[in-house]
Design a protein that fits this description.
Helix content is 26%, strand content 19%. By secondary structure, it is of the alpha+beta class. Helix 1 packs antiparallel against helix 2 and helix 2 (67-76) packs parallel to helix 12.
C-alpha cells in the first residue's frame, strides 16, 4: 500500500500507541518474499481465485511446492480470501535482506503485509530492522515465524527478546510454529497391492517417478536353464535305455525308451525324440535347436536348471550327445521370475534414485514397500506410472504424497486470514477485527503444553494451537506485536494515519483542481482541518477503531478528561509554519475500542 510518509512534506500525520488504563484496497496488499530465479522481475502480482492464481503461478514457472507457491496457497486458503498476492524476489546476488526488500519496495510499494521465507533468527532481526519504527520506518506489518527452541522455553537471548529490546522495532509480530512436528511430517510410502509371490516375466517393466521427476524404468530379466545335445538325428537307441533328468532341483524323472514307443527304435528321428521327452517329463520342454534337441526348464530365473543324472547308461548319453551334470543355468532378477519374492523386487529396485525399496513387515509382510528419501511431507511424492510389471505388483498409479509438511507458511496464512478485513467498513460485516482467537485454515496446529504456550506468549510471540475440538485446525493467540502492542492496535494506527493523509490530500487537491484555495485563516484553514479530522474520527468510531470524542481534552475535569482533539488557532502558529504555509500541530487523543479476548468469572454456589 502507499506509504503516507511520502507526503509528509505536504501532509504530516503521525499516530502513536500510548498506554492507557482501560477489505479495502491498500490494507489487503500482501507481499510474499522468497529467493527464486523464475523471473527477473522483483515483483509479480497475481489476482483472482485461489485455483486461478496457483495455476497461473505454475504456468509462470513457480512449481507446486516452491516457497512462493506454498506461501500464496496459504494466503489464498483463508476465508474470505484476498484477491491479490504479490510475489517478491530475493536475488541470489543480494547480499542482505535489506537490499532485496529495498529493490522490491522500489519496484512496487503498494502493499502492507509482509511474510518472508526465512526462519533464521539473525535474518528475522535484519528484516525487522529494515521495517523500522512506526514513525520513520517502512509502512508495513511484518509477520515473522520461528521454531527456535529457546523461544519455546523462553530462554535468555532468544530472537523475541532481541526484537523487544529495541524500542524502534514496532512493526514486527511473530508466531512460534514447528510445521514438521505439528503435521507429523514423514516420507511418502508406496505399498504393493499384492503380496508375494509375484507372477512376473522376462522383459516386464516397472516405471517409478520420485518427486515428480523423470520416470525411472526397471526391466525385470530372467532366462531359463537348459541342456542341448551335440549329436544330430537319427539315433540308434536300445530298448529300455533311460534318460534321468532333474528340473530345478526337483525329483529325478526317469524317461524310458522302449521299442514300442517308436516306429524304429534303431533310427529315432529328431521330432520323435522331442515328442517322447515331452510326453514323459514335467517341468521342462524339449524342442528342436537347429539339428539338435534342447531341453529347457519351464521356469526362468537363477534356480532354473536342467540336470542329467545318468550314471550307468552312458550309451544313451553318447548316442544322444548329452552330458551328465548341470547344463546352462538360468539367470535373472529372481530365483523363479513367475514366483518373484518381495525381497527380490526390492533388490531389483536398489538403484532407485530418491527412494528405497524393501520387503514389508508386519501388516505389509510379503509386500514391496517403496519409501521416499528426499523430502518429507506433501512435496515428497512417489508414483508408479504403470507398465506390465505392475499388473503383478498392483501399486496404485495415483501420486502418493508424504504425510504432513515441512513448511505450511503459517505466517503468510495469518496475514491472509486478517488482512482480508475491510477496515473502512461498518461492523458486524466489516470494520476493525481482532487478531486473537483467529481460525487459520490449511495449516497445522502445534501441540504445546500449557507451560510451553505460556512461555512463548510471555515473550509476546503468538501461538497457533487447537484449544477446542470445534476449532480445527487451530486458532491464533494472543494477537500481539513483539513489543507488546496488540496487532489490531497497530493496524488501527496505520489505518488512521493513512486515511488522514488521504483525507487532507484529497481536500487540498479538490480545491486546487477547482481553481480555488483555502485561505490561511482560522475561518478557512482551521475550519477545513477541524472538519476533516472530525469526519475521519466519526468514521473511525463507526468502523470499530476508536471511541468517538470530538471535544478538547480537559485536564482540570474530575476525573481528568484525557481524550479529544486540539486544533491550534492562527495565533498559535509558529513563524516557520506561517512561512511554509503549514498548519500545526493538531493533536488527537483517542481511546482504542479494543477487543474482548477472554473472560474471568468467579462463581460461588450455596447449598
Amino acid at each position: 500500500m502507499a506509504d503516507p510518509g511520502v507526503l509528509s512534506d505536504i501532509v504530516d500525520v503521525t499516530v502513536v500507541l500510548a498506554d492507557a488504563e482501560v477489505q479495502r484496497e491498500g490494507f489487503s496488499g500482501i507481499m510474499l518474499v522468497s529467493e527464486h530465479a523464475v523471473s527477473s522481475d522483483r515483483v509479480k502480482t497475481y489476482t483472482g481465485k485461489k485455483k486461478d492464481v496457483l495455476d497461473a503461478m505454475v504456468a509462470d514457472g513457480f512449481a507446486a511446492g516452491t516457497a512462493a507457491y506454498v506461501q500464496a496457497r496459504a494466503v489464498l486458503s483463508q476465508r474470505p480470501a484476498v484477491m491479490t498476492v504479490k510475489i517478491g524476489r530475493r536475488d541470489a546476488a543480494d547480499s542482505t535482506w535489506a537490499d532485496a526488500l529495498d529493490a522490491i519496495r522500489e519496484a512496487d510499494s503498494d502493499w502492507y503485509g509482509l511474510a518472508v521465507d526465512t526462519r533464521d533468527a539473525l535474518e528475522i532481526v535484519e528484516i525487522a530492522e529494515w521495517c523500522g519504527s512506526s514513525g520513520e520506518g517502512q509502512f508495513v506489518l511484518y509477520m515473522a515465524q520461528t521454531a527456535d527452541a529457546d523461544v519455546k522455553t523462553a530462554s535468555f537471548g532468544n530472537v523475541a527478546e532481541t526484537l523487544a529490546a529495541d524500542d524502534e522495532l514496532d512493526r514486527v509480530a511473530m508466531v512460534w510454529h514447528d510445521p514438521e512436528v505439528a503435521s507429523e511430517a514423514d516420507f511418502a510410502e508406496l505399498v504393493s497391492g499384492n503380496a508375494e509371490p509375484f507372477v512376473l516375466d522376462n522383459g516386464q517393466v516397472l516405471n517409478i517417478k520420485v518427486d515428480g521427476g523423470t520416470v525411472q524404468a526397471f526391466t525385470f530379466a530372467a532366462t531359463a536353464g537348459y541342456q542341448t545335445n551335440t549329436e544330430a538325428a537319427t539315433y540308434a537307441i536300445t530298448n529300455n535305455w533311460h534318460l534321468d533328468v532333474q528340473v530345478d532341483g526337483g525329483a529325478t524323472q526317469v524317461i524310458v525308451f522302449e521299442t514300442a514307443d517308436f516306429p524304429n527304435i534303431a533310427a529315432v528321428m529328431q521330432t520323435q525324440l522331442v515328442t517322447h521327452i515331452n510326453s514323459n517329463s514335467t517341468g521342462l520342454t524339449a524342442a528342436p535347436s537347429g539339428a539338435f534337441v534342447r531341453m529347457t526348464s519351464d521356469t526362468k530365473g537363477t534356480d532354473s536348471v536342467v540336470e542329467i543324472m545318468n550314471t550307468s547308461t552312458a550309451g544313451l548319453l553318447t548316442e544322444l550327445g548329452y552330458s551328465a551334470g548341470t547344463g546352462t543355468v538360468g539367470t535373472g532378477d529372481a530365483a523363479n521370475i513367475a514366483q518373484t519374492t518381495a525381497a527380490e523386487v526390492a533388490t531389483k529396485l536398489s538403484t532407485l534414485t530418491g527412494a528405497t525399496a524393501a520387503e514389508g513387515t508386519g501388516t505389509n509382510d510379503g509386500r514391496v514397500v517403496i519409501t521416499n528419501t528426499t523430502k518429507k511431507g506433501e512435496w515428497g511424492t512417489l508414483q508408479v506410472t504403470g507398465a506390465a510389471a505392475n499388473d503383478a505388483l498392483k501399486f496404485t498409479k495415483a501420486v502418493v504424497k508424504g504425510p504432513g509438511t515441512l513448511e505450511d507458511y503459517l505466517d503468510a496464512a495469518i496475514l491472509g486470514a486478517r488482512l482480508n478485513a475491510d477496515l473502512d467498513g461498518i461492523p458486524p460485516s466489516a470494520g476493525q477485527i481482532t487478531w486473537d482467537n483467529v481460525l487459520v485454515r490449511e495449516v497445522y496446529a502445534d501441540d504445546l503444553t500449557k507451560t510451553e504456550s505460556l512461555a512463548i506468549r510471555g515473550l509476546n510471540v503468538n501461538t497457533f494451537e487447537q484449544r477446542t475440538k470445534q476449532r480445527v485446525p487451530g486458532e491464533l493467540h494472543d494477537g500481539k506485536m513483539v513489543n507488546g502492542d496488540w496487532i489490531d492496535a497497530r493496524t488501527t494506527c496505520d489505518w488512521l494515519r493513512l486515511r488522514l493523509v488521504e483525507d487532507f490530500k484529497i481536500g487540498l487537491d479538490a480545491v486546487s483542481d477547482a481553481g480555488q484555495k483555502i485561505p490561511y485563516t482560522d475561518q478557512d484553514a482551521r475550519t477545513f482541518i477541524e472538519r476533516t479530522i472530525k469526519s475521519r474520527l466519526i468514521f473511525s468510531a463507526q468502523s470499530g477503531h476508536t471511541v468517538l470524542d470530538l471535544d478538547p481534552p480537559d485536564p482540570a475535569a474530575v476525573p481528568p478528561k484525557t481524550t479529544g482533539i486540539i486544533i491550534p488557532t492562527l495565533a498559535q502558529q509558529t513563524a516557520d509554519n506561517k512561512a511554509n504555509r503549514r498548519w500545526g500541530t493538531m493533536e488527537i487523543y483517542a481511546e482504542l475500542q479494543g477487543a474482548l479476548h477472554g473472560v474471568v468469572a468467579h462463581v460461588t454456589l450455596y447449598q
